[in-house]
Amino acid sequence: MRHGGVILLISAPSGGGKTTVCTAMLARHPRLRRVITCTTRAPRPGEADGVDYHFFTREEFEGRLAAGEFLEHAEVYGNRYGTLRTSVLGVLQGGQDVLLNIDVQGAASIRRMAMADAELGGALATVFLTPGTLAELESRLRGRGSEAEDVVRRRLEAAPREVAEAVHFDYVVVSGTREEDVARVEAIYAAERCRRHRVRLEFGRFS
Ligand code: 5GP
Questions:
Q1: DSSP H or E run through 54
Q2: CB 197 within 8 A of CB 4
Q3: What is the Å distance from ligand 1's center to 207 Cα?
Q4: Entry pTM
Q5: What string of pLDDT tens digits covers the 207 residues of the chain?
Q6: What is the span of the domain harbouring residue 157?
Q7: How far is the CA of 154 from the centre of ligand 1 (A)?
Q8: Is 76 part of any domain?
């Protein structure tokens, strides 16, 4: 693992507020890059291949899946989505770090891959961002006001199962204000950059 890069994976129960944290991290840390993921759905107006997604045909996607090219994949509303191993490792090999904003199932799949893959395992740092209580999650979901009642209910029902996944992550951030959340994730990122295996010292043959 020569690049010493970080894959900062952020996951949360839905309503956990991870997208705002990820947006702030990307804006503040130019070394941190998002990866372009893949989908079989058609591009929406204004979306470009290789910018918003890699748009694949179903056949192309299935072929790559069979070849083991995806770190994780999911089917959402009848379309396939996935993260290519080469997209993630390409960023690291270019000397940058990767920010992955991914649901708990995708996170579990990436952790499994990382256990069998030294390059991935050495880079991966996982963060679970969650409100501290079910009541807080409910108030956030309702506060957004954008979800229908049945969607809110479904997410609340799924939440205890999703939050139980926290034990599998390296870090757990109990969500406070947006600024507090960003500050904690920044602290984690800074600490990860200082992990011994990522620091290269140049003091001749002793380093
Ligand atoms: P959309 O079609 O609106 O762009 O995305 C639909 C859903 O697919 C969103 O919830 C988005 O987060 C999810 N998604 C996008 N890319 C990936 C991916 O690479 N892997 C997984 N598991 N989900 C993804």
A1: strand 54-55
A2: yes
A3: 43
A4: 0.89
A5: 467 999 999 999 876 678 899 999 999 999 999 999 999 999 999 999 999 999 999 999 999 999 999 999 998 888 999 999 999 999 999 999 999 998 898 999 999 999 999 999 999 999 999 999 999 989 888 887 777 888 888 888 988 998 999 999 999 999 999 999 999 999 999 999 999 999 988 888 765
A6: 2-35+96-206
A7: 18
A8: no
